[in-house]
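Input sequence (386 aa), recorded before submission:
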Amino acid sequence: MLARRNQHIMASEIRLIFNKIVGRSDIVDLTVGLPDYDTPDYIKEAAKDALDQGYTRYTHNAGYIETREAMSKKLKHDNGITADPESEVMMTAGGMGALLLANLVLIDPGDEVIYPDPGFVSHPAHIELAGGIGVPVKLKKANNFGMSADDVEALITDKTKALVLNSPNNPTGGVTPEKELRKIADLAEQHDFYILADEAYEKYVYDGKKPSFIGSFPGMMERTISIFSLSKSYAMTGWRIGAVAGPSEVVQAMVKLQEHVLAMPTSIAQKAAEAAVTGSQDCIRDMLATFSRRRDLITKGLNAIEGVEMKPPGGAFYAFPDMSAFNMSSQELVMNILDNTNVATVHGSAFGKYGEGFLRLCYAVSTERIEEALSRLDSYLHKLLR
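Predicted structure, token format:
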């Protein structure tokens, strides 16, 4: 008796790992994309002040105007995106809420949506919930898992309605170069489709490189829904607060739909977000520096293990090593590693068919945990090659 729309939506295969490690203290857990930082004090203090000042009632369905104004200034300064806080910016229940609303507003049954593979597991789920047809574009190791405009172009048809971008990418850490983004922007204009830019990891780009945002390119604000999450940037995963910038007709349609889904994001989380983007950004610099050191550590350590190969990820906080030398499915390898080393990782195939042969390891954990995981993996993996 359940609705048919749910029948083909699969739970994340990451749950296979979670179910095996829940409650176990002997596990080195590298599965969850969760920064090991607490929310900065100035953000928590702003939330406490908001409670004391009575910010506990309904807000505008798009969020407090002062929060949207703060986000608009942030978008201009950080992302090069000029967006009217009245009509082109809205606050959402995290990036996830924004992604779902955007798909439901844009996608009609039968529309095709190109999305990255390997990629975030909810992208194809949201497309399917909206009645769309997901078309995976392969992110290639040879391109450091950045998206190729040529690969996108090969998949475009007269039914293409949108393309999902996620750079830096989860699970690979791949960053799409600006020249490819500009080519993709040209394709979007030429073939008249939307861009859903999932910018969840905007703050985590390494080696001093400046991130590029397709919504800032000339002519692209009109067809780009830029989705930002404070979860990763400010260690606010539990606050469930995000923001959208895009063309007014799309954003206003999302606001209307949000009214019927959850009314608005939590009022206190909105005030915390306002404080986050207007206050000191030292926390961002500190986390980026820490994650950069951990990236170098895990890259060096994994490459020192026989049979493992990986280039340094360009962003985010995930390692995605090539494990094809072990001649077994990535899921089988994950389970073998877990059973024999108590190190929990995630199989690449959990992120799409093109993730087969790889593993994802989250290095948003302490240096000590990374070193322990590397030691255990080094002691075990070479045995599988004999």
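Checked by second reader. The mean pLDDT is 96.
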